[in-house]
Amino acid sequence: MTAEHLTLLLPSDLRSMRIVCAKCHGSLSIRLNETVRVPNDCPVCGQAWKDGQSSGSATAAENLVNSLKSWLSIEHEKKPPFSLQFEIVNTP
Ligand SMILES: [Zn+2]
Description:
Number of helices: 1
Bound molecules: zinc ion
Number of strands: 4
Strand order of the largest sheet: 1-4
Largest sheet: 2 strands, antiparallel
Structural class: alpha+beta
């Protein structure tokens, strides 16, 4: 028998989104109660984050966080008949 440990993450557990540069691994943490906007460039090394073939990734990241913020608002104000939980697999 194999035991798999799962951690459940609630949307309300989320506090910030960390943007990590693929080039220098520098990061920027944006609290979810702020306007979430991916900067044009990495604040550490200047790598472009919104140019070229990956230009849709910043929009996708912003949409993801804005969707989470919308859900948190609905959860708080409208008490939906279900909740959301995200499963995270723990590695031993
Ligand atoms: Zn960087």
